[in-house]
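re: ur msg from earlier - yeah i can do the calcium ion complex, just paste it... oh wait u already did. ok heres what im feeding in:
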Amino acid sequence: MRLLIVEDNGRLAGLIADGLGRRGFICDTAPDLATAEESLASAAFDAIILDLGLPDGDGLAWLQQQRSLRQLIPALMLTARGGLEDRIAGLDAGADDYLVKPVDIEELAARVRALLRRPGPRAMNLLESGALRFDPVTREARIEDRVIELSRREADLLELLMRRLGSVVVREAIENALYSFNEPVTPNAVEAIVSRLRRKLEEAGLAGQLHTVRGVGYMLRSG
Ligand code: CA
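and the outut:
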């Protein structure tokens, strides 16, 4: 789950990114709307956490404009303004949820999970391939009743491959989904995660499903 945190208070943005990062989210931060637009153009995010007052504009007006451009990524507004009218304006502008500062990280994480669970551009329904099941909300993979223990990135990779079952997922798309802009990706990082995931699937009885398409990417075949 990759999140974009648009917040001009660098310390707060860092705290949120750190707190949500420790709860399994991949977080990028943007200090203004221009940077947010650049980030959205160059990577796929699952949700935005958006401050209202930003140096180059109003988060609410920006969100409204994004919505009119059919940019439907779920957005949670984060703001010091807590009046009823502000909340209503936020929700009317297309925010999916609204949280008033100071923010409790535990609550924010729960709200983001709830946001991602709603039907939308990225449905959070159980993913299935033969006996293999992955729950996008709890991040748990199972084969029948047996849980497969996965690291955060292994789970993200499995989700990506299961969402594109039977299609080749190019290496760049995998790097994009698994790493934030700040995290250096070593040349063999993706291969290493793929081999660990492949080994865990094999140990759980699913041999030969995760294929390497040399020079292109990886593919999960349905079991
Ligand atoms: Ca602000």
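cool cool. The chain is about 40% helix and 25% strand. ping me if u need the other ligands too
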